[in-house]
Write a structure and sequence with these properties.
The protein contains 3 helices and 3 strands; from the N terminus they run H-H-H-E-E-E. It has about 110 residues and is α+β, with helices and mostly antiparallel strands. The relative contact order is 0.12.
Length: about 110
C-alpha cells in the first residue's frame, strides 16, 4: 500500500506537467496567464517538495517566472569561453542562464551480438 506522501508527490508531478503543457499552448495568446501557470507550477512543487523536471526548468526564467521561448522573449547564444556553454538571456528582465555543453561519450562495443 502506498503512503499518502508518495501519492501526493505523483499527483504534484502530473499537475506540473499539465500546467507546463497549458503554458506552452497559451503563451502566444495570453502571456500573463502563462506566467500565472508557471507561478502555480512552482508553488505546487514547493508545497509537495518535488523538483520541477529539468526539461521544464530550462525554459523558465528564475527572476521573472516567465516562459522562455527562443526568438520571442529569449535570446540563445553559444559561448566557448573556458568550455562550451549555452546562454539563455531573458528579454523581459535581462537575467542570464548558463548551461554547459557536455560531449556524449561513445562506448565501444556496447552492443553485443548474440
Amino acid at each position: 500500500m502506498l503512503s499518502w506522501k508518495i501519492i501526493e508527490k505523483e499527483i504534484a508531478k502530473e499537475r506540473i506537467e499539465i500546467l507546463f503543457d497549458l503554458t506552452r499552448k497559451i503563451f502566444n495568446s495570453n502571456p500573463k496567464l502563462a506566467n500565472r501557470y508557471i507561478q502555480l507550477m512552482r508553488k505546487i512543487a514547493m508545497k509537495a517538495r518535488v523538483k520541477i523536471p529539468l526539461k521544464y526548468k530550462l525554459f523558465i526564467c528564475k527572476k521573472c517566472n516567465s516562459l522562455l521561448i527562443p526568438g520571442k522573449n529569449c535570446r540563445v547564444r553559444i559561448k566557448s569561453e573556458k568550455g562550451t556553454k549555452v546562454t539563455f538571456t531573458c528579454l523581459n528582465c535581462n537575467s542570464i542562464k548558463r548551461y554547459p555543453v557536455v560531449k556524449e561519450k561513445t562506448i565501444k562495443n556496447s552492443i553485443k551480438l548474440s
